[in-house]
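TA notes, week 10

Several of you asked for a full example with nothing omitted. So below is the full record: structure tokens for the whole chain, then the designed sequence directly under it. When grading your own attempts, check the secondary structure regions first.
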């Protein structure tokens, strides 16, 4: 059970939630930068509009897949943990104490989301 919780917390709560919120707060989207560079390289190799349109919709597809994965592994409580982690990342420039408290709450929720017995007893599964 600990490995499942650790994986969920690192992959979804920290990766998808907290880091996404932090990048939003800073104003940089590394995914868009990378996909834009790949799109330009693909356009130079093959200037087909279908390939270019794929790079336009790819960020949305990746986000939806990430949200689906977070829901599949942690259900509603897991999504709440990811949202709280996102808010923690957003609040870094405003108050680091608030950000740390929100991140700790998100990690606790992520742990509860992957612990079936606790989530079932709380009514989340």
């Amino acid at each position: 059970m600990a490995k499942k919780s650790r994986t969920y917390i690192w992959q979804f709560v920290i990766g998808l939630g907290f880091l996404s919120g932090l990048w939003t707060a800073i104003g940089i989207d590394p995914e868009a930068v990378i996909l834009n560079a790949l799109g330009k390289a693909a356009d130079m190799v093959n200037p087909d509009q279908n390939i270019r349109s794929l790079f336009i919709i790819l960020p949305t597809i990746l986000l939806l897949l990430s949200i689906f994965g977070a829901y599949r592994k942690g259900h509603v409580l897991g999504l709440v943990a990811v949202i709280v982690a996102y808010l923690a990342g957003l609040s870094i420039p405003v108050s680091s104490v608030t950000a740390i408290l929100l991140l700790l709450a998100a990690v606790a929720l992520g742990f509860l989301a992957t612990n079936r017995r606790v989530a079932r007893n709380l009514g989340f599964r």
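Helices lie at 2-26, 30-45, 49-90, 96-114, 116-122. Use that as a sanity check on your answer.
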